[in-house]
Amino acid sequence: MDLNNVLGFPILSLSIFLPMLGALIIWLFVRGDQAVRWAALAVSVATFIVTLPLAFMFDESTSHMQFEELHPWIASFHVNYHLGVDGISMPFIVLTSLLTIICIISAWECIQTRVKEYMLAFLILETTLIGVFSALDAILFYFFWEAMLIPMYLIIGVWGGQNRVYATVKFFLYTLAGSVLMLIALLAMYFKAGHTFSMLAFMDYPFDFTWQLWIWIAFFFAFAVKVPMWPVHTWLPDAHTEAPTAGSVILAGILLKMGAYGFLRFSLPMLPDASHYFVPLMVVLSLIAIVYISLVAMMQTDMKRLIAYSSIAHMGFVTLGAFMFTGIALEGALFGMISHGFVAAALFLCVGVMYDRLHTRDIAAYGGVANVMPIFGAVIILFAMANVALPGASSFVAEIMVLIGTFDASTITQAHLPVSVKWVAIVAASSVVLSACYTLWMCKRVVFGDVKKESVASMKDMSVREFSFFVPLIVLVAWLGLYPKPVLDVLHKSVTHLVAQAKTSKLGAATALAQAAPVLVAVRHERLKERNN
Amino acid sequence: MANISFPYPFPDHLFALMPEIFVAVVAMALLLLDLFIAREKKAITAYIAIATCLTAAVLVVQAMMPEPTTAFYGFFMLDHFAVLAKVLICLGTAMGMILSVNYMKDEANVGEYYVLMLFSMLGMMLMVSATNFIIMYLGLELMALCIYVLVGYQRDRLRSNEAALKYFILGALSSCMLLYGITFFYGVTGSFNFIAIGKGLAAAGGDAYSAVMLGLVFIIAGLGFKVSMAPFHMWTPDAYEGAPTPVTAFMAVAPKVAGFAIFIRILVDVMPALLHQYTMILTVMAVLTMAVGNLAAIAQRNIKRMMAYSTIGHVGFIMLGLIAANADGYAGIMVYLTIYLFMNMGAFAIIILMQREGIQGELLADFAGLSRARPGYALAMGLMLFSLAGIPFLGGFWGKYVVFMAAVEAGHLYLVLYALLFSAVGAFYYIRVVKYIYFDEEKVAFNFQESRLMQATVLVMAIAVVALGVYPDPLINLCKQAVAGLI
């Protein structure tokens, strides 16, 4: 098999294991909180620099996997250490390495206990996240997917808020229960597809319809929990609320994307017919996420909870776009994932800035913050507008693309829905109003108005360090909002390929295979007989 | 064999028996030698015993031949499978002894303690090499009698006595069941030899059916007791809780290895004709075992009791390998047991270290704040617990993976689904201990009775669990090769 790697150098392995190696060195050799902070920052910046060639040397003209690496790992079970990225996964690797830097800077002052463990947990988390997005072997994917639970469990549980134990155990068990179903699906596919765990081989193998349905359901539980989709979303508000700021940032920025990424990597290309079959389910759940969860968000009194629900609503858009089977909707969904990574991360950081000052996330405890913190007021309003998907922000591009794609959804989606997709698009468009409601209402209560409380009056504006981690986010949100072309170019070929895969039914090939199977078995028997004779 | 000649009169076939002879001789010599070792220097006895175990492991590997060798007219067999099982048994026993050195140093008559462990190891080694029910039973009883005494070794502690008595009565009952089952097979086939019985059962007519079934049920019940399969698990929590902690660690690993090894051999050699029947029985028992182990563990407040139920849960997962009844399944069992040896011994090493003045360190709450007091031990314990829960990049994941994969291969998809759901349930009680270690504040000052030996043990176990988690291929290959000759 030819490996497509222009660099001729295991850059993906390096980006995966550099944080791990850095964590090991920090664990063994670095002493003192301040030294640990700087060392962790150095490692994360180095990782970011290592991931940059992925973006700059990426070949946009192909949908093939790039920067591939392939080594046997567990030869007895045909498990390979197979890495590679395409336009769908590459942006998330860069996003991960960028957000990790921001997480580490944001923890500079607010984490004062067990600084070393905190930094180690984040660096190891980075390893697993980059691993998930670059794995092309299903077991390798699962390996990183599950390993991620350990650092995240500790991050929420050790440095979280008051109710952290409940939140982190809930997070752990929800995710674990979801992903064990994925494991059994992978094992079943291994034997069905002829003793391989290669995700690319799974995409090509014609699974028959019943088979696809069951596998799809198993995957669905794993991914839906992670997205999260209604009704298995309840772990997210708890986890977000209790996690430390940086934990929320990485959770909203990257972890939520893993679920949607799973749908795009596994469900759509490997099980196209089941994906068609389950279009109504996905559309209904997505619309519930968009409408109902937006209403829930409106009623929250805790800022982090509000943003958490808003994240679920935005992820509803992503899952909706994924199951429209048109290039523009899928591209919009992916763009939405990237954009949400910046916007939600920034909003959680804003809450973190306020929390560091007053140690409460309660909306009612604030009011008139803009009067005492003008710079901060400007920043939070900017990101609130981005959350509402105002034109000029990256999220606008994403939402408009998903909405256009939904209006213009493929005949496959339409054929599986009892009503016209136009209605779906209309209901989804209500998000524009609803997200404005909850976001702006929160802003009104927190940022604007007169300063009524003494505690608020004593708040100091952002420090240079705090402002510094907003700068890249502001630049990126505005840049992608005004000129999204570079990212869309990266996505385009891979998305087109994915849509083609998702639209093409595997049933014809499956039937052909089923008809050929008895013949093949007969041939094999003949050969065995000959050999025995 | 033929090209090996000895300068002294030594029957060729006894070469295969060398490790057992060595252990028996050293154990008896140690019993005498111990009388001459001063009370405060009893650690010497321990070190001799540990060295014996490790030497025995080396001898076992030395005695291995490319082809299976037999001794005593086929009553004793040394094949690759037996070699692997014996190495694991020797390692498990050595680990149990290492954990005992500090723990048992204040007990009276500590010398005999190690001798008993050696004899029980000898029993297990005989057991896994048995080719017929008589040798198997001899080995089994030698093992069990020693462990009964070991469980009750702390004579002045009520719980230890109670545990020993319960274990002994139930153990004796299960041995009776096993013997009763064997008599049925003997009655039908007229032989004690595994292979001969296997052939006899395959040829047995319909009129012998009820006798065969009774034999099957009683034998599975008797063996099931030894490896604590539900519903024959009742003794496990009490015995584990009451026994001295190093004995708990020892009996959670070594007898399980021996029990599963002989279970595999019996299923493969004796019962191929009864595949359908025993799969059905084992499936029901596995379903029960996984549920009992994983659910009851949640309710425990004592870590030794929790580990007892955790063992039952793991036995439930391992049973999937028996049910799969293919080479991958049996290899998976050996992989699982190897990894289980490392993670269980590591966890128990830290539990033993937890002993503080006036506190046994056995309650889950006693772990509160360990991560602040001793970050190193906390990390090691965390790794062991996540590994037991089966989270990747740690060895425990691959143990489950290999067994589950074999079961899927054999077509038991629903059973694997059930097992996976229970492994998620099981994760809860492991991460609850992590919660105490990492999230809670220290209540009582920690006061470890440390030694270099224990530190090294914890370190080695932690490294083993991580290394096997990242690169399990050599172990899996080894187990596959060991099992290849079996079928």
Features:
heterodimer, A: 533 residues, mainly alpha, two-stranded antiparallel ribbon, globular, B: 487 residues
What does this protein structure show overall?
The complex is a heterodimer of chains A (533) and B (487). By secondary structure, chain A is mainly α. Chain A has a domain at 278-483. Chain A has 24 helices and two strands. A two-stranded antiparallel ribbon of chain A has the order 1-2. In chain A, β1 and β2 (79-85) form a beta hairpin. Chain A is globular. By secondary structure, chain B is mainly α. Chain B has a domain at 273-487. Chain B contains 19 helices and two strands. In chain B, β1 and β2 (76-78) form a beta hairpin. The model of chain B has no long low-confidence stretch (mean pLDDT 88).
Strand content of chain B: under 5%
The secondary-structure element order of chain B is HHEEHHHHHHHHHHHHHHHHH
Helical percent range of chain A? over 70%
Low-pLDDT ranges of chain B: none
* Low-confidence runs of at least 5 consecutive residues of chain A: none
- Global mean pLDDT of chain B: 88
Mean pLDDT of chain A: 86
Question: By helix and strand content of chain B, what is the structural category?
Answer: mainly alpha
Order of helices and strands of chain A: HHEEHHHHHHHHHHHHHHHHHHHHHH
Form type of chain B: globular
Radius of gyration of chain B: 22 Å
Report the sheet with the most strands of chain B, covering strand number, pairing sense and barrel closure: 2 strands, antiparallel
Structural class by SSE content of chain A: mainly alpha
Q: What is the percentage of strand-forming residues of chain A? A: under 5%
Oligomer designation:
heterodimer
Give the number of DSSP strands of chain B. Answer: 2
Strand order of the largest sheet of chain A: 1-2
Radius of gyration of chain A: 23 Å
